[in-house]
Structure formats: structure tokens, C-alpha cells
Amino acid sequence: MKHVSILVPKSNTILSSVVGPYKIFKSVNDFILQTGKSQQPFFDINLVGIDKDTVLYDGAFSVHCDATIYDISKTDLIIISAVRPEWITDGIKTNYEFIPWIKKQRTQHNAEVASLCLGAFLLAETGLLDNKQCTTHWAGIDLFRQMYPKIDVLPEKIVTDQEGIYSSGGAYSFLNLIIHLVYKYCGQEAAVYVSKLFEIDISRDNQNQFAIFRGQKDHTDTLIQKAQLFIEDHVTEKISVEQLSDMLAVSQRNFIRRFKKATANTPLEYIQRVKVEAAKNTLESTQNTINEVMFSVGYSDTKAFRSLFKRFTGLTPIAYKNKYNRELVSF
Questions:
Q1: How far apart are CA 314 and CA 147, in angstroms?
Q2: pLDDT digits over 176-210, tens only?
Q3: 83, 78, 92: which is closest to 119 by C-alpha?
């Protein structure tokens, strides 16, 4: 039997990321018992908090935990539930008592640890992710990189698995991580069963198609903000780094350094991401051909545009249009 501790951080936990893993692990137990594969359930599951009761969504819901971290001396698997974005700045302090407990379980009892969505921020605070791979919600990638430069962030990944440390991408992609853990612990038959029961697409391995690029403007470098606005206002044109640095009267080397520091992107990457985001919006909302869309964002080489689009979205332009165009998609 494997003991699972599903952590319930104070205040801003995403309720579905507590209920989802709980229900899936419970269903695996039912499957194992019903099929006669074992006489006892595989997972012993506890909801674990700093306090027994946690109020969520401004009082709309509450979670009653089976135990607190002070009751659990040893566990095999820790699930760090997803949290709301506004949790990140103040929530780490509010839930800091989890951190030494997680570290102790990992270092003294070799517990495995999995973070769901933005729960990766709490896992990163333990230092257990240093020099390891991790993913999180695409909306938190830039902040995560700024706060934890020692971690190898893989923004496109749905699931990462390295030396007993796991993470999932954004929102409901945590379901794919839970299925991954079921497969690892209980085998393919159990994983396929619960994926069918909960209708989870187990083939998903890339979250880039869901990402929305808004540009990183929460910095104080006004010169770089001018460059960003120029790029976004001239999406139909071909823009070079040389053109931008000349326009702003700074050397290319200094411009590139400042741009990367402010936005976490090189100027070229930023230009490309803005153009791809504009192309995505056009593919979603119009019946323009791929070539028309390509020309509208300043590209003329079909092969280069296709390659760039797929690098940032994980899909070809035509596949993206077929999947997300408002007139083609049936709801």
C-alpha cells in the first residue's frame, strides 16, 4: 500500500486539484479490488493541511482534511495541489509550514513529490527542484523563471518526471500527471481504465497550443517598453533588432541585454511570439487562408512560418485552425 498525502494549502487552493486526484486514486483502488488483482486497496489517501479545515473561494467551499502535517510522520507520495495565481506572492508565506515537512519527507523517507499547475511555486521553495526539470501553468512561466533561476523550466510540457519529482502543466493537465502516476505504480491496465472512466486524453504531451502571449510589461525599463509597443503596433511589418536599437539610440548589444533582462525573451523571440499570437487570433476568427495569415504577420516563406508556428504552439497552422476556428469547431 502506498500512502498519498494530498496537500491542501490555505486560502487559495484550486478545489478541483484536490478532488480530482482523490477521485482517481479512489477509483484505482476500486478497480484493483473489483478485478481481484489484490485483496486490499493500493492507495491509502489523506487530505493533509496545516490546519484541519481550509476555507476556499471566499467561503463558498471548505475542505476538511483527514490530518495535518503534524499528524503524518511518513508518507510515500506528496501531491501539492494547484493554487490560484494571486496566491503566489502572499501564499508562500501563509503556507510556509509545508516546506520543511515536504523536505523532511523527501530527504528522510524518500517520498516522491508531485506539484500540480502553479503548485510548482511551493515545490520550488523547498529547493528540491534545483537543477531539475519542471513545468507549470503557461501563465506563470516567466515569473517562475525569474524567481527560480536554478530550475530547468520546460514550458511546453504537460508532465515532467525526474528522480521521483513530478510536475504538471496548467489547469486540468494535472489529470495527465495523475494518470502518469497510476501507470507508474499500478500498470497500463489501471491507467487506461481510469483514463476511460474520467474521459482523460492520455496522449496529450504539449501545452503550448493553450498558451496566450501577452508580453511581459511588468518591468520598469521604459525604453524596452517602447520597443515592445512598437513591435506590437507593427505586427504586419518585418522588424529587425538593428532597426529597433537604431530607433532607440542604443547599441545592439546593450539593447539585447536590456530586452532579455526585462522580458525574459530576446528581441527576436519577442517579435516572433507577437507575430505568432497575431496569426493565432486570425486563424481562430477568420476564414483567411494560411498564406493570407502568413503575409498578414510579415512572413513570406511558407516553410519558415510553419516551422516557427509549430515551435511556439506545438501545432501546424492548418491543424491549429481546424482545432480552434470559431466557424469550424462544433460545440
A1: 26
A2: 999 999 999 999 999 999 999 999 999 888 999 99
A3: 83
Indicate the helix (H) or strand (E) that contains 87.
helix 87-94
| Domains of the chain and CATH, by start | 2-210 (3.40.50.880), 222-324 (1.10.10.60)
pTM of the model: 0.89
SS3 content of the chain, % helix, strand, coil (to 5): 50, 15, 35
> Virtual CA dihedral for 268, 154, 262, 120, nearest 10 degrees?
160
User: What three-state secondary structure class fits 2?
Assistant: strand
Angstrom CA distances, 198 to 99, 111, 201, 207, 317, stand at 32, 27, 9, 20, 30
Identify the pLDDT of residue 331: 52
Q: Give the model confidence (pLDDT) of 10-64 as tens digits.
A: 978 999 999 999 999 999 999 999 999 889 999 999 999 999 999 998 889 999 9
Q: Could you read off the pLDDT of 240-269 as tens digits, one per residue?
A: 999 999 999 999 999 999 999 999 899 999
Classified as helix, coil or strand, 21 is helix
Distance CA 115, CA 7 (A): 10
Between the two ends of the chain, the Cα-to-Cα distance in Å is 42
Q: What single-letter DSSP state applies at residue 96?
A: T
